[in-house]
Write a structure and sequence with these properties.
The chain is α/β, with parallel strands linked by helices and 337 residues long. It has a single domain, classed as Phosphatidylinositol (PI) phosphodiesterase (TIM Barrel). The protein is built from 10 helices and 12 strands. It starts with 23 loop residues before the first strand and ends in a 20-residue tail after the last helix.
Length: 337
């Protein structure tokens, strides 16, 4: 098993590695990939502006994603992933299908763990979302504990084969760790337990603005205290999401050394930022990191991106590899060969 096996890459990491010491691919709006939702008599918002994935959750897990960003909408007939405003936008996989897919994936890959983070539910009946989890086949794979856990400090050994279900406690009331229902908090909430994350998307379709926005988040995270996970949003929002994300820089842009194209084609640029603590172009924003401990402090634990695929995930997972890891963590953590 190696770090290049995207369906089981966590199996190559040491058991004592904590989540805060790992970089993993994450699926932005994981379940939204299939259909457009609109109101009668209203011009629909195109799927191209709202769908962030092009394959179901099971295939995203097989392509390396281990952090699923999920927004659910409850209707009279179903619970489904959605990315909508006032009934306009894209909907996708059913909640039942997502749960069964994660369960099947973990059954087949017991070396892995999958985080499901649920925020911004819509349509009411929020407790029904939790109840569906407890009735699904995933219930046997839920990470449970007698007391609340800070997942940033949890070693892989105790998480392998498990799903971490984390819900926004402001939205969901039926939460308890003994049931495998854990709270999700943002860093600003100043909590010391649950799934705690910092980071925010740049809210732009411009790759340069995405980079500048995430450099700011890297700098901010370097000053944060307390154990939590840093989520870096390598996403381009607005316009045709897929075209923006997958855009290839033109020849003249490459010759001029300009930052162009989409996030899928700028992973090397991102890796330089987080590994070496400096921007490729001095005129751009610079990450103020100069030593190994500093680089460790800015390592993104989750790189959230759109249109999850094995190639891009492999670039992200390589941040855990021995050839790059010394820039981020003590090389002694890697077992001798």
């Amino acid at each position: 098993m190696s770090l290049s096996d995207m369906d089981a890459w966590m199996g190559s990491l040491p058991d004592n590695r904590k989540l805060k010491e790992i970089s993993m691919p994450g699926s932005h709006d994981a379940g939204v990939y299939s259909e457009v939702s609109s109101k009668a008599g209203v011009l629909p918002v195109p799927k191209s502006q709202t769908a962030c994935q092009d394959r179901p959750v099971l295939e995203q897990c097989e392509a390396g994603s281990r952090f699923l960003d999920l927004r659910l909408k409850v209707s009279r007939t179903s619970i489904r992933a959605h990315h909508t405003t006032a009934g306009q936008g894209a909907v996708g996989e059913s909640w039942d299908s997502t749960l069964e897919s994660v369960a099947a994936f973990l059954d087949a890959h017991p070396s892995e763990c999958v985080i499901l983070r649920l925020t911004k539910p819509s349509g009411g009946a929020k407790d029904q979302i939790v109840e569906t989890v407890l009735k699904s086949s995933l219930r046997h794979r839920l990470y449970t504990s007698a007391d609340f856990t800070n997942f940033a400090n949890t070693p892989l050994k105790t998480l392998r084969g498990k799903a971490i279900c984390a819900f926004d406690p402001k939205e969901f009331s039926v939460l308890h760790p003994s049931l495998g229902m854990h709270p999700f908090f943002r860093y600003e909430d100043a909590n010391a337990f649950g799934l705690i994350t910092c980071g925010k998307y740049s809210n732009s379709k411009s790759i340069q603005k995405v980079i500048d926005g995430q450099v700011e988040k890297i700098d901010a995270h370097a000053d944060h205290t307390g154990d939590h996970l840093f989520v870096l949003y390598w996403t381009q929002t607005g316009g045709n999401i897929e075209q923006n994300t997958k855009a290839t820089p033109q020849k003249i842009q490459r010759q001029q050394g300009r930052i162009a194209g989409g996030t899928h084609h700028n992973m090397d640029y991102l890796k330089d930022l987080v590994c070496f603590g400096t921007d490729v172009k001095p005129a751009d924003a610079v990450v103020a990191v100069s030593d190994s401990p500093g680089r460790r402090n800015v390592m993104p634990n989750v790189i959230m991106y759109d249109f999850v695929n094995s190639k891009t995930s492999k670039e992200i997972v390589s941040l855990n590899g021995p050839e790059l890891q010394p820039h981020l963590v003590d090389s002694a953590w890697w077992p001798s060969k």
